Each structure stands twice: as C-alpha cells, then as structure tokens.
C-alpha cells in the first residue's frame, strides 16, 4: 500500500428544495419527533414577516419554541456564548435556524455546547482552539437558509470570528451537520441585492476552490478513519456538485442580484449554494478562504451596501472573492484543464485560446457585474497589513493543505499584491 489516501466518503445533509418547501416545516418537526425547539434567527428578517411566518408554522404543528435573535453577522465567541446561554436557559428537543450562514452557524454551535457542555474554544480547530471532537451526536437542527451563499445548511462547519486574535476559524465535525436543510427560494425573495452578490460570490469560491483542490488520492493516508479530515480533496463525486454550482453561478448570479423577484434566478442560486456546500463539505476550500479569515478579522472598517448593520465588517463573500483571481492565477499550472473548464462554465461558453488568465478574468467580470469591491484596498488594507494577513492565513493549515500547490508566505504576499485592486 502506498502512503497516499485511497478512500473518499460522501456524507450529505438531507435536502428538501423548492418554492413552498418551508410550508412543510411542521410536518418535518413531527417527523423528527420534536416537541420543543429553539428558533435561531436574524432580526433583520422581521422586516419581511418571515420570522412570524415560520413561528406560525412551528406553533401550528403543536411544537413549543423560544426565539433567539441576538445574532451577529460573522459570529464571535461572545455572540455565540449569548446564544448558548439562552439555549441552556430554555431546554428544547431541537433547533430551527432561519437566516444566513451566521444564523445557521450560531445554531450549530449552540446545539454542540448545550448537548456536550464545555467551552466553545475547546472545540475550535487547532491550533487556535483545542480541536476537541464532539463526543457524540447532537440534537436535530433544521436549517432554512434565507440567503444563497454559505452553504452552511449542507456542511459540517461553523465559522466564528475571534477579534482578539484577528482571525476567523471554525468548528468542524460531522456531528455539526444539520439534520435537514429546507431550501425554499421564496425565503430569499427579500434578500437585499448586496447580500445576494456577496453570498453568490462565496458560492462560486466554494465550488471553484473545491473543484481544483488537491485530489483526495494525492494526500497522505490518515492513520485511521477517525483521522480522515472532513475536507478530503477533490474527488469524482464532489466534482459533480462543484461543477454544477459553478455553472449555476455563471448563469444566474447576475440575474439574482439585479432582480430580487427573479425567483428562478434566486432559487437556482440557492440550490447552487447548497450543492456547492455538499461539494466543499467533502472536498474543501483553500487559498481564498484561508486569506478571507484574516481579511474579515483584522479590520472592521468596510460598510457593505445592503447589510443593515451599524458596525463595519467585510461580508464573507467579498472577503473571499477579492483574492480568488490571483489565487487561481497561482494555481493554474497545477491543473490547467480544470481552471479552464471552471472559466468556461462561469462564462457559459467555450473560450478561444484559453490560458492562465481565463479563470481570473471570468471571475473579475462577474465581480464587476454584481458590484463587488475591486480588491483588498477597497476593504481598507494596504501593503503594511500584508504580514498580519499572511500570518492569519498561515494559521489555516487545515485549509491550505487542500491547495493544489504548496503555499508559503512568499506566495501569499504575491497573491495579496495582485489583489489590492483587481481592476
Ligand atoms: Fe465561504
């Protein structure tokens, strides 16, 4: 036997998709035999009557609930701890999360700590946290995403911001996976254009990074199945999900941003987000996401259009997309054909004389089309910040191990240099 991995796994979240799917929440609560739940949600959704609607469905099913809505976009230990404290005070059989990635991740962490106890940092990925594995399954969590981005409804990961360390990191384990994702395009109708843009660019990065990640069979064989990481590298099954998500992004993202009532476009982007979540939940993201964590974590001066928050922050999708053109320029020669196919799916047509710039330029055109910031300069960074960003990114070895080429500080510096302004 070689020392290379020879096995990959597919573990996917149960999915219920379609316009009107949310109406079946009551039936699903009964299916999971839930008598009481914590509804974790985003207060911004009051404006659209969504919270009241979902609460009506829960109540109609005869399920009692308590609502927690003190959500922070890009959760911190403090904001998560508030949620945990609330859930400890209000014991329930399970969780319903209604909102975007931050909401779903808050629900995942609340579920973990209320079931197994301990401190949040115990479970955060090493070396930043203790890297402790959840000792057993959690309570059922039903996710109803209202944006089409994080794919959190389909993954085993919860992401959190640790401002003191200027870094974002996560908790990842198969027990963190939601029991069910109900993806209903009608829930996304009211999402502001800026949120749809950032979230959709995140979807593209999930899918493209996963598709060109270091293949599973080019990675070291784990000592035991228990040591096999959730992010296993590209493989024939993950690739199917990733490629379809890239194609959907190319076809529908711009339309979804420009017209909130384009239910076909928003719906397909939601499905694409979940599909990319299944792809990256198995294959894994790497360079742009490793840089995105310090980019979102170090400075909080950017105010993104469309996000109704009184504090500055870099929406996750923007923090990821800004370095992706340079990252894929760097990785091009590892798998040129894969980069070109991704570019063609994004463009929706064959590219004449493709090359290293095909994918970066396809991404940049998409960024322009949906109103993305042009680079890290617009997010408040200059060259003096590079060492801190690089240091933060190098802490994400769990992610960087998935890059199709080795990544060191010098490589990251070049990528950052090229990412100050993409146009
Ligand atoms: Fe992401």
Would you kindly provide a written description of the structure presented here, covering whatever features stand out?
With 423 residues, the protein is α/β, with parallel strands linked by helices. 44% of the residues lie in helices and 10% in strands. It contains 16 helices and 8 strands. The chain has a 6-stranded parallel sheet with strand order 1-8-5-4-2-3, with helices on both faces. Strands 6-7 form a two-stranded antiparallel ribbon. Helix 6 (193-211) runs antiparallel to helix 7 (236-258) and helix 12 (336-347) runs parallel beside helix 13. Residues 202, 206, 289, 316, 320 line the site of fe (ii) ion.
Outline the fold blueprint.
Layout: E1 14-17, H1 25-31, E2 36-41, H2 50-60, E3 64-68, H3 77-89, E4 94-99, H4 101-116, H5 120-123, E5 141-145, E6 157-162, E7 167-172, E8 180-183, H6 193-211, H7 236-258, H8 263-282, H9 287-298, H10 316-321, H11 324-331, H12 336-347, H13 358-370, H14 386-394, H15 397-400, H16 409-419
Parallel strand pairs: 1-8, 2-3, 2-4, 4-5, 5-8
Antiparallel strand pairs: 6-7
Helix pairs in contact: 3-4, 6-7, 6-8, 7-8, 7-12, 9-14, 11-13, 11-16, 12-13, 14-16
Bound molecules: fe (ii) ion.
């Amino acid at each position: 036997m070689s020392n290379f991995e020879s096995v990959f796994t597919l573990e996917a979240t149960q999915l219920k998709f379609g316009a009107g799917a949310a109406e079946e929440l009551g039936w699903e609560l009964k299916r999971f035999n839930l008598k009481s739940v914590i509804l974790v949600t985003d207060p911004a959704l009051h404006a659209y009557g969504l919270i009241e609607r979902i609460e009506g469905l829960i109540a109609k099913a005869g399920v009692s609930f308590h609502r927690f809505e003190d959500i922070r976009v890009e959760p911190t230990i403090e904001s998560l701890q508030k949620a945990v404290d609330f859930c400890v005070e209000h014991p329930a059989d399970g969780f319903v999360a209604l909102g975007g990635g931050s909401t779903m991740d808050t629900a995942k962490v609340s579920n973990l700590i209320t079931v197994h106890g301990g401190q949040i940092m115990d479970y955060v990925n090493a070396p930043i946290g203790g890297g402790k594995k959840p000792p057993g399954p959690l309570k059922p969590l039903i996710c109803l995403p209202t944006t089409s981005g994080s794919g959190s409804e389909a993954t085993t990961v919860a992401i959190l911001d640790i401002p003191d360390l200027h870094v974002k990191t996560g908790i990842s384990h198969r027990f963190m996976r939601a029991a069910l994702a109900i993806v209903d395009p009608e829930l996304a109708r009211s999402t502001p254009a800026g949120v749809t843009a950032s979230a959709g660019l995140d979807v593209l990065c999930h899918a493209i990074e996963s598709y060109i990640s270091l293949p599973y069979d080019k990675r070291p064989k784990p000592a035991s199945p228990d040591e096999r990481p959730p992010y296993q590298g590209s493989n024939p099954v993950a690739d199917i999900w990733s490629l379809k998500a890239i194609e959907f992004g190319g076809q529908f993202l711009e339309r979804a941003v420009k017209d909130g009532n384009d239910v076909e476009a928003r719906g397909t982007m939601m499905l694409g987000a979940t599909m990319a979540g299944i792809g990256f939940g198995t294959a894994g993201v790497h360079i742009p996401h490793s840089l995105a964590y310090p980019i979102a974590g170090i400075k909080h001066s950017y105010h993104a259009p469309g996000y109704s928050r009184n504090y500055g922050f870099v929406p996750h999708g923007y923090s990821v997309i800004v370095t992706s053109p340079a990252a894929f320029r760097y990785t091009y020669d590892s798998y040129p054909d894969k980069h070109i196919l991704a570019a063609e799916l994004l463009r929706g047509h064959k590219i004449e004389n493709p090359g290293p710039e095909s994918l970066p330029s396809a991404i940049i055109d998409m960024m322009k089309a949906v109103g993305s910031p042009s680079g890290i300069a617009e997010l408040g960074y200059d060259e003096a910040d590079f060492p801190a960003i690089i240091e933060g990114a190098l802490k994400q070895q769990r992610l960087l191990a998935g890059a199709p080429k080795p990544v060191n500080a010098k490589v990251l510096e070049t990528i950052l240099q090229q990412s100050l302004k993409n146009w």
